[in-house]
Amino acid sequence: MSQNVVVIGGGPAGIEASRRLRDLGYTPILVEKQPVLGGHLARWDRLFPDGVEARTVLGPMLQDLDGIKYFTDTEISSINRLKDTWVVMLSNGLSAQVRAILLTTGFDLFKAEKKEEYGYGIYERVITNADLEDWFKAGAAPQFDHVHTIGFVHCVGSRDEKAGNRQCSKVCCVTAVKQACEFKEKYPDVTVYCFYMDLRMFGRKFEDLYLKAQKDYGIRFVRGRVSEVSEDLDGHLFVKAEDTLFGKPMKIKMDLLVLMAGMAPAAGTSDLARMTNISVGDDGFFVPSSIVDAPCSSSREGIFFAGTATGPKTIPETLSEAAAAAMAIDRYLKTPAKR
Amino acid sequence: MIYQGKQRIWSEYQKEIPTDHWFYVRSCIRQSFFPASEKTFLEILRQRLGKDVYETPHHTTCGGIAYHSEAIPQETMMTIIARQFALMTEAGYENYVCSCITSFGLYSEVIEDWREFPELEAKIRENLWKATKREFKIPTYLAHASDLIYKFRNEIAEQAKFRLVNKATGEPLRVVEHIGCHYSKMFPSKGVGGAEYPYVLAGMVESWGGEVIDYPERRHCCGFGFRQYLVRANRGYSVSNTHKKFESMEPFKPDMIITNCPGCPYFLDRWQYVIAEQTGKTYGQDGYGIPVFTYEEVAGLVLGYDPWDLGLQTHQVAVEPLLDKMGIPYKPEDKYKGLNGKELQRPEFPMNIKCC
Amino acid sequence: MIDFGYGLTPSATLKIENVQNPLFEELHRREPDVAKCIACGSCTASCSAGVFTEMSLRRVILSLQRGREKETLPMLRHCMLCGKCLLVCPRGINTRHLILSIGKVYGPDGLKEEADR
Question: Is C66 in Cβ contact with A243 (below 8 Å)?
Answer without folding.
Answer: yes
